[in-house]
Amino acid sequence: MEEDTSEEEKGLWKLSMDGLSCVSGSGARLVLTSPDGWTLEYALRLRFKTTKNEPEWEALIVELKIAKHLEVQKIEASSDSQLVVGLVSGEYEAREDSMTKYLAHFQSLKSAFQILRVLKVPRAENV
After folding, report:
1. First-last CA distance in the chain
2. Membrane-crossing residues (predicted)?
3. Cα radius of gyration (the chain)
4. pLDDT at position 124 over 60
5. Among 27, 34, 52, 62, which residue's CB has the most CB atoms within a 10 Å radius?
6. HSE-CB of 14 using CA atoms within 13 angstroms
7. Alpha carbon distance 29, 16 (integer Å)
């Protein structure tokens, strides 16, 4: 049986990311998958002290810059950070200066894409 894909979903790239923040350092793992199954994997090492959600933001922004460079038009990102997803969707309001700056940076990149969705996934299902 052939899968029925809507016109909007054709050409949709998938982005999975997972940030890590601990005493010994912070970073993120990124996986960008093309509609054909071609996969790019990246690891980020952040050389500055981060809060719990900053590695997720860094991962999202870096991956969107890569996708923009690759001229990706449609992308669906998955994150286990409720704060990041809530801020992007408008469900939450940024209260900290750093979150406001990350959200503004995200908004500035958003216009480069026809479709840009950021979905919340359970931690166990994240990259």
Report:
1. 28
2. none
3. 15
4. no
5. 27
6. 13
7. 8
Question: Does 44 map to a domain?
Answer: yes
Which residue, among 45, 56, 53, 46, has the nearest Cα to 16 in the 3D structure?
A: 56
Instruction: Provide the number of structural domains found in the chain.
Output: 1
Residue 29, domain member (yes or no): yes
Question: What's the domain range around 33?
Answer: 11-125
Could you tell me if 78 and 121 are in contact, meaning their C-beta atoms sit under 8 angstroms apart? yes
Whole-number pLDDT of residue 22: 59
* Dist CA 26 CA 21 (whole Å): 4
Q: Are 38 and 70 in contact (CB under 8 A)?
A: no
Average pLDDT over all residues of the chain: 85
pLDDT at position 17 = 83
Looking at this protein, which amino acid is placed at residue 121? V
3-class SS of residue 32: strand
